[in-house]
Amino acid sequence: MTSLPRRFLLLLTFASLSACGSKDPAAAGDADAEEEPAVKPKALVTIGTVQSDTLTDVLRLSAVSAFPAKDALRATTAGYVLPPSPVVGQQVRAGQTVFTIQTKESRTLHLDKLTGDPRLRFSGIIPIKSARSGVLATVDKLAGDYVQDGEQLGLTYDRSRFGFILDVPVTQLRYVHTGQSCRILLPDGRVLTGRVAEVLATADVSIQTQRYTIRPTGQVPDLPENLAVQVELDRTAPRQASTLPRGAVLTDETQTEFWVMKLLNDSTAVKVPVTVGAQEKDHIEIKAPRFSPHDRILLSGNFGLDDTAAVKVTRPVAAEKE
């Protein structure tokens, strides 16, 4: 067997060693990427502290506007309604003639035109007058209509007796009493002051509620009947409480668990379970735990953060307002 030259053997050995020691740069880069952990971006948040506010436990219930004092204008005889016909919304005074009826005998004999004989004092024209001042709510008969004795011609209501009907659940009756002040929230945002006037001797069997009347105490705008409003009654006297803005308090889908995100250091926020109390439009009472004025609570950017989340604090809300 012929032996290979020494120089050729040295070249083969060097080539094999180079092939074993070389690595693909792209493969090496992929391996490094898999080993390095992904860095999550920090959430931008604003912070604030608990505030001491004056709160009142409020009972909010639905009510409906009503005119409890109504008068039905009825025909006192059979006959025909004479013009002019009144219109809905017309103001009427006590004793004012609203409808006029001509009896069928008068129309047949034309008694209303026999004015020469003073003995014919009965003309067959019957005025129907309003018993009290108010507003004409309905007009059920028009000029030319034939009506029977006792038939309703229209309906008037007394504006001075305008109020609201409030149905109070029996479980909340201890918080409502006659003479109590309240606030009436209209659908357009206006707020009227009122008081609980009287309790009615009726209750709804199906939903177990007690009915009260609410009377406005100040100037009342022109409101229609059957207008749905909200009535607020104070269940407790004003008291001092620790509160946070509503956006700072987070909750689960069932709203049985509540928590806030507290800043542990300059870049880490932790989840702190809380017990809430009265909830107002913009603030929520924090009953427990008791936070110090120096505890920094996330006010925005806190939604969806996990416990011990990495955050980046922007300018506080108070500083932005300034």
TrEMBL record:
Keyword Signal (UniProt): yes
Keyword Acetylation: no
Signal peptide: 1-19
Entry keywords, A to Z: Signal
PANTHER family: HLYD FAMILY OF SECRETION PROTEINS, MULTIDRUG RESISTANCE PROTEIN MDTA
Protein name: HlyD family efflux transporter periplasmic adaptor subunit
Source organism: Hymenobacter negativus
